[in-house]
Amino acid sequence: MKVRIKFRKQGVMKFIGHLDVMRYFQKAIRRADIDIAYTEGFSPHMILSFAAPLGVGLTSNGEYADIMLKTPISSAEAVRRLNDVMVEGMEIVSFREIPDEKASNAMSLVAEADYTVIFREGMEPPAGWEEKLLAFYEKPSILVTKKTKKSEREMDLKPLIYELSVSDGKIFMTLSTGSTDNIKPELVMEAFCREIGYDLPAFALLINREEVYAEGHISLEDLGKDIG
Asked: Which residues belong to any copy of the DUF2344 domain (predicted)?
């Protein structure tokens, strides 16, 4: 049985990198006595994969991990057992059966994600920035240079920002996410601050990922069903 786990990552856990989160989950699954399947061969390891790894320093209400179960367990019991062994800042939200198909792999399904962004107190741009941000979003194109470890390329962010709004100093955005065009909210905000001539201080942004979606704006959680 293939299962998708949805979890929150908050508080000090935002400083824990993806590889350490993977190791942590392996230990938590063993402590919770979840009968997970292992690969075969000389060096067996848990069948465990994550969707769209979260950057260090970001919090999230919608992170996902896929596992393969050997022995079925009810969703309610699995959530209870896992939360009993979770550290502060990590919370299991759901535990759902998903179709056992390659196409259902969380990592390959990711297409977009919702984010909430706020400026740390005293680090926001001058008054009137909210209106300027909305005007920035209305531009026909938003050209930026995206740098990777191996190269850099100019790209247009506009078609990859599916939604952007601001209310009471809180910015909400839906961005293209995944292996093809993975746009980070930091890239959008850096482009905006350059546009208005504001020198964005380091660590000025507090970013929370709200949800991750497959094509059609369907959350990865909604692709599964609770186990009775």
From this structure: 2-185
